[in-house]
Amino acid sequence: MSQNEAQRLVHIRSLATQLGQALQEAGWTLSTAESCTGGGIAAAVTDIAGSSAWFHQGWVTYSNAAKHSLLGVEEATLIAHGAVSEAVVRQMAEGARLRSGAQLALAVSGIAGPGGGSEAKPVGTVWLAWAQPGNVETVCCHFPGDRITVRQRAIQRALEEALRCLASVPRLRQLDLSDVAQATALWTVQQAAYRVEAGWLGVSDFPPLRASVADLQACGEQVLGCYLDEVLVAAVGWESPAPRQRAINRLVVHPDHFRKGLARRLLQWVLRDQQRVYVTTGLANQAAIAAYRQAGFVLDGTMTHPDGIALQQLRYVADNAAASDDELNRPADLAGQEQES
């Protein structure tokens, strides 16, 4: 193996690792449909430990018959454009996505050589496609080099473009509030969100707006952030008073990103594997109450904040959590925070 080949393989592994992390943060899965790379993309991603969490399945459709029967590429398209074409690779990607149920599918078809090329499609011509819900992107590449080099470069480009596709997909990751930059980013989102809520509640002095960055760093909560293009745009913070219980203390979305489903996505994550979850919001914040109820919360009484703001309590109980009325009461002591493993 040449030094260049070895360096490309190291880079491919790094890209596959990054792609796996991005897919997990997005809550997406990946499928592949390959021709000239012969399963090389699938091999690269499944070489990463834990890839079963985000890789769905792959097809190696080397023949036209396989492209048609396994991925649904139209015979007329194959005849009119040839296997190495935008039209075919587009149908390969979309066929893989629809058949697997994955949110992202990669497809590749090309001429790796040393034979098989033509004046119109010389050796090294590779078409790639990336399909996601509502969109398919394609690119034609001309890679120099021998057969191994062409295949490696096709795999590398497929992974690079997959990462680019995911850049605009909301991605979830834990925040470390001991990091001043992360705490400041949360404070910025929270200030913008709570100013809007203060307007809805009709209050000029809204207690959450008094919180400082230092207060956030000392809050002791676990916080999950939602990022778009590496910018924090929404977050949820909670404490765990008992095993499989959570008390949500903040759920904030920057006003520039309202109505994008970000709060719903964060709530789905917080509710996962929990028996009971509790939250309190302003009684006049009917939008928030409706969102919680849509997520499965039920009304659980009202109370008044010392500042005079009327609050609505809500609780979520999992379907399999049989509990008495006493067990369903909001925990009074939130001091004993259970750390996630």
TrEMBL record:
Keyword set, alphabetical order: Hydrolase
InterPro entries per record: Acyl_CoA_acyltransferase, CinA-like_C, CinA_C, GNAT_dom
Alphabetized Pfam families for the sequence: Acetyltransf_1, CinA
Coiled-coil annotated residue ranges, if any: none
GO molecular function: acyltransferase activity, transferring groups other than amino-acyl groups; hydrolase activity
Residue stretches making up the N-acetyltransferase domain: 170-318
Gene3D superfamilies in the cross-refs: 3.40.630.30, CinA-like
CDD domains per the UniProt record, alphabetical: NAT_SF (cd04301)
Classification via NCBIfam families: PncC_domain
Protein name: Nicotinamide-nucleotide amidohydrolase family protein
Highest classification ranks of the organism: Bacteria, Pseudomonadati, Pseudomonadota, Betaproteobacteria, Neisseriales
